[in-house]
Write a structure and sequence with these properties.
about 140 residues, alpha/beta, five-stranded parallel beta sheet, 5 strands, about 20% strand, globular
Length: about 140
């Protein structure tokens, strides 16, 4: 069974990735195990913020924001009756995506070329580009 990691951020491009994956499910004759992943940014000033706000509240914030970003993809997969697992990570987007792919022993990363941070990507380099450089497994990019 092929394991696919599908990073999503709630953007229109991430929605197109899920749509494309649903259309291509027939290509995978042995079945597919899909892992949706949303990556949240760590809180600035780390432990200083958590000492004031509390780590539980920060964890709840990351969970709530992650679920909100995952929801459109989950709804599409549910409507298509496609099973999946979902995960929320915190950290650098590209490194977290690559780490999850390794941890779950994924065979491919199936992701969009642009996300919610498209404007900053013009200056910093896209997450997709970083993932391609950091991983040793195939990356399928959907425009």
């Amino acid at each position: 069974m092929l394991k696919l990691l599908v990073p999503v951020d709630g953007s229109e491009c991430a929605g197109r990735v899920v749509d494309h994956l649903i259309k291509k499910m027939g290509w995978y004759k042995d079945g597919v195990e899909i892992h949706l992943l949303n990556v949240q940014h760590p809180m600035p000033y780390g432990s200083r913020v958590s000492s004031v706000v509390g780590q539980d509240k920060i964890d709840q914030y990351h969970h709530d924001e992650g679920m909100a970003a995952l929801k459109p993809a989950m709804q599409k997969l549910d409507a298509a009756k496609v099973k999946y697992h979902y995960h929320i990570g915190v950290g650098d987007e590209a490194q977290t995506i690559v780490n999850y792919a390794r941890q779950k022993r994924c065979d491919q990363i199936f992701m969009g070329t642009r996300g919610l941070g498209a404007v900053s990507n013009l200056f910093l380099g896209s997450v997709a580009t970083k993932v391609i450089h950091l991983t040793e497994i195939p990356v399928v990019l959907v425009k």
